[in-house]
Amino acid sequence: MTVxxxxxxKVYDSPxxxxxxxxxxxxxxxxxxxxxxxxxxxxxxxxxxxxxxxxARINPQDIFDATAINHLSQDFSKKAQxxxxxxxxxxxxxxxxxxxxxxxxxMIGLGPLEIPLNDPDLEEVVVNTxxxxxxxxxxxxxxxxxxxxxxxxxKLQNYxxxxxxxxxxxxxxxxxxxxAHLTSGDRAxxxxxxxxxxxxxxxxxxxxxxxxxVTDFVANGTLNKEVAAFIWLAMQYELNIIVAGGTSSxxxxxxxxxxxxxQANHRVISIEDTRELRLPSFLHWVPLTTRLANPEGKGKVSxxxxxxxxxxxxxxxxxxxxxxxxxxxxxxxxxMHTGHSVYATLHADTAEQVxxxxxxxxxxxxxxxxxxxxxxxxxxxxxxxxxRRTYQVAELLPTGDVExxxxxxxxxxxxxxxxxxxxxxxxxxxxIDELRKHTGITDREFVADLKEKMxxxxxxxxxxxxxxxxxxxxxxxxxxxxxxxxxxxxx
Length: 491
What we know:
The protein is of the alpha/beta class. It has a domain at 214-490: P-loop containing nucleotide triphosphate hydrolases (Rossmann fold, 3-Layer(aba) Sandwich), CATH 3.40.50. Helix content is 37%, strand content 22%. It has helices at 39-55, 66-87, 93-107, 114-117, 153-165, 214-220, 225-236, 251-258, 303-310, 326-337, 351-359, 367-370, 430-439, 443-462, 468-480, 482-490, and strands spanning 2-11, 14-22, 29-32, 122-127, 135-138, 142-146, 177-181, 187-191, 201-205, 241-245, 267-272, 284-289, 317-320, 341-347, 375-382, 387-396, 410-416, 422-424. Helix 10 links the parallel strand 13 and strand 14. The termini are far apart.
């Protein structure tokens, strides 16, 4: 086996060594350096675990709170150190730390799966059956086979039960499918045998601990500063936007990165199945999430329920995780018609496909309602190169404004070239017209405004301002005193 890369990660404050290996197998390996635990030490660890759990005072509500679980892990860690010092005094500090990490993974987390879940370089952690090693999706190397083995199907089902209990649900023979999220925000899916014929499965998509920001996207070429400045201008003046793309193309990440462009005095309501959006802490933001029915079939709160309710909460902006059905789309476009600024995501690979999906079953939105939508942003994932890019930025022209030579009412403003660069395509028509009509902005002011915003974006990239709050505060400074910020940038 050839070592491709070696690095350390922190799991419960203990360093764990990770090796990326290449051997004779068809895929590379993700190798975790587990501590070598002898049988007598295992017996001692079980005794320590029993002592800690016997004296623990755990509030049932704590399992729903990430902060409470963090405090609990710190408390358990301290107790384990004290007990271990008495029972295993010969252990060195690093070995003791590894054993405590092993204990905490077993008592609080999902056993050995906690290690890859703490690796910031991973996007996905999956177990297909207890009889095979777990797999992970690495940001740099793609799918890797690990040396993590769960051991038995009952143990794997127990991990699924832990995930279910933390969201007040259950997974069993009658309900063999689970969709949930961990306290960390990671999305989890589980299936039980015989629905999954090879055995029980767990799939965990990791939630970015530091969300992507527009600064990151400009710096890594996902979109350029001209496109980012144009979207910023559109959001400043409350135009409606749909972000489209295929699976794992970065739709939600792009949508989240655009949220700091909202003014701090605007009330934002977000509606999601699983909480993924993270806005600057100082924004006037109310996040809402759906809820599935309980085992008796009661208590369900759907996305449609939340969308209808959000209209009674006096929002300035409504952000929807994903449009899937006709009733959701109808409420969304009704919100646009009643003067709310709306942002949402949709599964579609091109701007043309967005229109077709909207116009046809199961969504069936008529063209007359579609005219409330101003911009479509399309994300693309290049699987060969392992990169994500903004593929198209298109404006939707009202039917009456479409010239005879046009085949559709879509005007592609920016598009991705085969060499990976994003370039201007057709001149802007509707967005400039809307801004002229509602703000009185002239064409010269429009161009000057874009240049100012590009200058601010350049400044954030150069100064490495890439945390959500810092990006939000810089943009809030721009709204509060544009001249002062531009002057500071000049210096």
